[in-house]
Design goal:
The structure holds 3 protein chains of 3 kinds. Chain A is an alpha/beta fold. Chain A has helices at about 5-10, 60-75, 95-100, 105-120, 135-140, 165-170, 175-185, 190-195, 215-230, 245-260, and strands spanning about 25-30, 35-40, 85-90, 125-135, 145-150, 155-160, 200-205. Chain A has a single domain, classed as 2-enoyl-CoA Hydratase, Chain A, domain 1 (Alpha-Beta Complex). Chain A is about 40% helix and about 15% strand. In chain A, strand 2, helix 2 and strand 3 (about 85-90) form a beta-alpha-beta unit. By secondary structure, chain B is an alpha/beta fold. Chain B has one domain: 2-enoyl-CoA Hydratase, Chain A, domain 1. Chain B is built from 12 helices and 7 strands. Chain B has helices at about 5-10, 20-25, 45-50, 85-105, 125-145, 160-170, 185-195, 205-210, 210-220, 230-240, 255-260, 270-280; strands at about 30-35, 60-65, 70-75, 110-115, 150-155, 170-175, 225. In chain B, strands 1-2-3-4-5-6-7 form a 7-stranded mixed beta sheet, sandwiched between helices. In chain B, strand 2 and strand 3 (about 70-75) form a beta hairpin. Chain B is globular, with a radius of gyration of 19 Å. Chain C is α+β, with helices and mostly antiparallel strands. Chain C contains 2 helices and 5 strands, in the order ββββαβα. Chain C has helices spanning about 50-65, 80-95; strands at about 1-10, 20, 25-35, 40-45, 70-80. The termini of chain C are far apart. Classes of the chains: A alpha/beta, B alpha/beta, C alpha+beta. At the A-B interface, helix 2, helix 3, helix 4, helix 5 and helix 6 of A face helix 3, helix 4, helix 5, helix 6 and helix 7 of B.
Chain lengths: ~260, ~280, ~100
């Protein structure tokens, strides 16, 4: 059982909502006494798309995520927008011919659009990283969240591209790439370096990340609740700015404003 | 105009630099660049890795007018580091779009056009590029609530990676025959999936599957334009006038899940013609 | 990557600034700005290590042929050939002299 599947069931405690691709799990539960929809992408060995059988975000997953989020936006119109929790355990986007032919970029845009509009419509959006959060897959599932929380574990990592491919594209050996990653925080694959960029709201340790027990589940739910309260009425991603390793992102904005 | 006269007057858009493209699209004399190269807001991350930076980090941000209306142009220079998005260039685009949203909240109807020539995240700034792209995407979706965000992929780099998702978020998308649009670059797919899956050196195959003409035929782009500055301006005018689609491409999950469901339990490999046939009527 | 700087005699300050080129393969960008009268300074950031003497020679030839206006020139070089360097700088000169 994948981490994503373990954690979504542990946290949401309810039946899976029907009507989605087998690789997209949706469970309606609650958080801080407020309705909450938990969403995860999980491996499906029978996925009709062979390049998306190990939890990758492909065409079905992109459009499936879009549907899961749109459904919540539609259902809550005029009422209290439910919390959305993206449980993130996505090794990559799907790399394949079928995917490019069918416009996988558009499928992922479907997911990003839905998440971003949900946030703008007042759905508090939290990304919980329990495994890999890679590249386009993370953009489609989690990166639109107002608060990003990561379980502190070597298997939890954020990056733009796997090491082998990144080495090839930048014309370096994997060893050279690793040596650079050790010196350049945004290139690193580990959580501590990622946290230094100011993009994570919180990191928390758990006892058994592969098989969360009651205590782990409770402590993660407690952090999710605090994140929800911290979000308050905000609808933007501004809380990510401010870290010294990301100072230029703020400086560019300030100078643009001055010249606007 | 006769064909010959038209030929004499035509000016290639693809051959222009990012700055010239931005200037050429805006009303004559209205171009005003923000954070221009003389401010030397360069990538510290490239320099730390012994890579020569560019003074504008490969992104041109310009304000001006188009047919008298306020327009923001964000143009990526594909020649510098493959148009890759690093911290500075990414923040320039995200920050400018965020200010365009503020304009609209203050009653100034600023629209935006993104000139996309990019391989996606700059791998030397990996996580900072990825974060910036998430913020660009957030700002596109927000600005669209007020005014259209038009994407334009002209070539020669094409539009890949996280920025292809950004292209998929635009209100309208304009492409040329030289353009390519796809999530994963051919080299990366070949690396990850093997040469039988994707031969990165087979150019006709790649253009056939991801080229501007194919994307337009499938409804994944709204306008297919010749490589000519004047025709590009006309297409931009039409796109801005058409405004936000009633049902944007990025919200067609129902139609798309229907289409994908029809491909069976083992989706076969697809070629360009089969894909066009599948898409017929789905996105248009 | 290597960082180099050079100084040459020059005429009166240039009238305006100019940007030419792009940091693409075999090319460079040069930012030319009005400098202190009588002095032309060039700072080069180049991807080609050990190319100091080559730049020195090239600039000697280029800047001694005619009197250049006083400029402060910043070059970001991505392996431009001497021909391309000359072309870009002459293009820049034309632009800073333009009324």
């Amino acid at each position: 059982m994948s981490r994503g599947l373990q954690w979504i069931h542990a946290l949401a405690q309810g039946p899976e909502v029907a009507g989605f691709p087998a690789s997209v799990k949706v469970i309606d539960g609650e958080l801080d006494n407020r309705p909450a929809r938990f969403i995860a992408v999980v491996p499906d060995p029978h996925n009709p798309f062979p390049r998306a059988r190990q939890g990758e975000v492909g065409v079905l997953e992109g459009w499936g995520l879009a549907k899961a989020v749109e459904q919540a936006i539609e259902a809550d119109k005029g009422g209290q927008p439910r919390v959305l929790v993206a449980v993130v355990d996505v090794p990559s986007q799907a790399y394949g011919r079928r995917e490019e032919a069918l416009g996988i970029h558009q499928a992922l845009a479907g997911a990003v659009d839905a998440y971003a509009r949900a946030r703008l419509a007042g759905h508090p959006l939290i990304g919980l990283l329990v495994g890999k959060a890679m590249s386009g897959a993370f953009l489609a599932h989690g990166y639109q969240a107002q608060r990003l929380i990561a379980l502190d574990d070597p298997g939890v990592m954020v990056h733009a591209m796997g090491k082998t491919a990144a080495a090839r594209i930048t014309l370096r050996s994997v060893e050279e790439l690793e040596a650079l990653a050790a010196k350049v925080p945004p290139m690193a694959y580990d959580l501590a370096n990622y946290a230094s960029l100011g993009l994570l709201w919180e990191r928390l340790p758990v006892a058994a990340i592969e098989q969360p027990g009651e205590a782990d589940t409770a402590s993660v739910r407690e952090v999710l609740t605090r994140a929800l309260r911290d979000i308050g009425d905000s609808r933007d991603l501004r809380s990510r700015l401010g870290a010294s390793n990301r100072a230029l992102s703020s400086q560019v904005r300030e100078r643009l404003r001055a010249q606007w | 105009m006769t064909d010959v006269a038209q030929l004499l007057h035509s000016r290639s858009f693809v051959e222009l630099s990012a700055r010239e493209r931005a200037k050429g699209l805006l009303d004559a004399g209205s171009f005003r660049e923000l954070l221009d190269p003389f401010e030397r807001l360069m990538s510290p991350w490239l320099q730390a890795q012994g890579i020569v930076p560019q003074a504008d980090d490969g992104v041109v941000i310009a304000k001006g007018t188009f047919d008298g209306q306020p327009l923001l142009v964000a143009a990526i220079e594909g020649v510098f580091q493959g148009g890759s998005m690093g911290e500075v260039g990414g923040a320039k685009i995200a920050g400018a779009l965020e200010l365009a949203v503020e304009d609209n909240r203050n009653g100034i109807p600023t629209a935006a056009v993104l000139l996309l020539e990019t391989g996606g995240v700059r791998l030397q700034e990996a996580n900072l590029g990825l974060a910036a792209i998430a913020e660009i995407q957030a700002a596109i979706v927000e600005l669209r609530q007020f005014r259209p965000v038009i994407g334009l992929v002209a070539g020669a780099v094409g539009c890949f990676g996280g920025m292809s998702i950004a292209a998929g978020l635009c209100s309208r998308l304009i492409v040329t025959r030289e353009a390519r649009l796809g999530l994963n670059g051919p080299q990366v797919i070949e690396q990850e999936a093997g040469i039988e899956e994707y031969d990165s050196r087979d150019r006709p195959f790649i253009w056939g599957l991801t080229g501007g003409e194919q994307r337009y035929a499938c409804g994944l782009a709204d306008a297919f334009v010749a490589d000519d500055l004047q025709q590009m301006r006309d297409a931009l005018r039409a796109a801005l006038a058409a405004g936000e689609p009633v049902q944007p491409r990025s919200r067609r999950h129902q139609q798309m899940l229907g289409l994908l469901g029809g491909l069976g339990e083992n989706c076969p490999q697809l070629d360009a013609a089969q894909t066009r046939a599948l898409y017929k009527g789905v996105l248009q | 990557m290597e960082s180099l700087s050079f100084t040459f005699p020059a005429g009166a300050a240039a009238k305006r600034r100019a940007l030419v080129g792009c940091v693409g393969s075999g090319d460079l960008e040069a930012l030319l700005e009005p400098g202190e009268a009588g002095v032309l300074t060039v700072k080069v950031l180049t991807s080609v290590n050990g190319s100091g003497p080559r730049w020195e020679q090239l600039f000697q030839r280029l800047f001694s042929g005619q009197t250049w206006p006083a400029l402060s020139i910043d070059i970001h070089d991505f392996g431009a050939t001497p021909g391309v360097v000359r072309l870009r700088l002459e293009q820049g000169l034309e632009e800073v002299n333009h009324d």
